[in-house]
Specification:
- It is a single chain.
- This protein has 318 residues and is of the alpha/beta class.
- Helix content is 36%, strand content 14%.
- It contains 12 helices and 12 strands.
- The model has no long low-confidence stretch (mean pLDDT 97).
- Bound molecules: 2-keto-D-gluconic acid.
- The site of 2-keto-D-gluconic acid has 9 residues, from loops.
- Belongs to the D-isomer specific 2-hydroxyacid dehydrogenase family.
- Keywords: NAD, Oxidoreductase.
- Its EC number is 1.1.1.29.
Length: 318
């Protein structure tokens, strides 16, 4: 039986399924693997089921003397923590879990949109602090979301799921930017540049993959293009956004608010963001629902099973 390392405790269903196929070791530690542990794991296991935070960067592969490991079956759609080219150079396959994460992540985008536009986080803090003076006609007026324009940067699976929620659920107009043309089965307008989308949107949402190619794609120029009344939402990856530029835009009143599920240096969230009432901050909750995490895990296990059965894993990325 192939030896597999699962790098974090996982829902029971995932572990049961993994154990049906493999000799599984589950790391009983909820912190990311350290470089030495990653090199050790590459030498000891036939396959690894890593998660966000396990930074399989180029040096981990180049410094690994030999690798018994043949596949990293990532738990999650985003795999920017894995240097896929370096893995390939060592003959290690990488797979991910698209599809399983789409709806849950889009739901969190909607949560953040409503939290920031309708000042829900701020309102909840007010109530909990015992500072609510009672209803009045002009208290805590936010941005009316229904019927507004959402701008989406990255019209992949998650971007489309967000667009549909906005369009069909909230009657919003959708404008977007995507590297390639996307055939869509709903009304949405593709604009020529990210800045154009930023300038048109009442709410701008980023839904592109992270990594070197998209690092700081959302920067000072994009925030400058946004309207002072517009809100910014990030459910993608922290490094897609120049966090310092976002903080400056918020502090200068260049934009009205932000809703964030991801950060440049997780779990570090800048104090400047925590200090602002018009910012909603979530702890990377994108896929945090039991059935979603089960589906992600089962998908990762299926990638492992297929790989070791000599089939092409359904979600191979390299
Ligand atoms: C996951 C995510 O929870 O799927 C992704 O890419 O961002 C998350 O919601 C995380 O990646 C788990 O490894």
């Amino acid at each position: 039986m192939k030896r597999i390392l699962v790098t974090r405790p996982m829902p029971d269903r995932v572990l049961e399924e993994a154990r049906r196929h493999f000799d599984v070791e589950i790391r009983d530690d909820n912190t990311p693997l350290k470089p030495g542990q990653m090199r050790g794991a590459l030498a000891l296991y036939d396959g690894i089921l890593p998660t966000l935070g396990d930074m399989f960067q180029a040096d981990v592969f180049t410094e690994a003397e030999n690798s018994r490991c043949r596949i990293l079956a990532n738990f999650g759609v985003g795999y920017n923590h894995i240097d896929v080219a370096a893995a390939r150079a060592m003959g290690i396959a990488v797979s991910n879990t698209p599809g399983a994460v789409t709806d849950a992540t889009a739901d969190i985008a909607m949560t953040l949109m409503l939290m920031t536009a309708r000042r829900a986080g701020e309102g909840e803090r007010l109530v909990r602090a015992g500072k609510w003076p009672g209803w009045n006609p002009t208290q805590m007026l936010g941005l009316h979301v229904s019927g507004k324009t959402v701008g989406i940067i990255g019209m992949g699976r998650i971007g489309q799921a967000i667009a549909k929620r906005c369009h069909f659920g909230f009657g919003m107009s959708v404008v977007y930017h995507n590297r390639s043309a996307k055939p869509l089965d709903f009304d949405a307008r593709q604009l020529g540049s990210i800045e154009e989308v930023a300038a048109t949107a009442d709410i701008l949402v980023v839904a592109v993959p992270g990594g070197a190619e998209t690092r700081h794609l959302i920067n000072a120029e994009v925030f400058a293009a946004m309207r002072p009344t517009a809100h910014f939402i990030n459910i993608a990856r922290g490094d897609v956004v120049d966090e310092a530029a976002l903080i400056a835009a918020l502090q200068e009143g260049g934009i009205a608010g932000a809703g964030l599920d991801v950060y440049e240096r997780e779990p570090i969230v800048p104090d400047a963001l925590k200090a602002m009432e018009n910012v909603a901050l979530l702890p990377h909750l994108g896929t945090a629902a039991l059935e979603v995490r089960e589906a992600m895990g089962l998908m990762a296990v299926e990638n492992l099973r297929a790989f070791f059965a000599g089939e092409t894993p359904p979600n191979l990325v390299n």
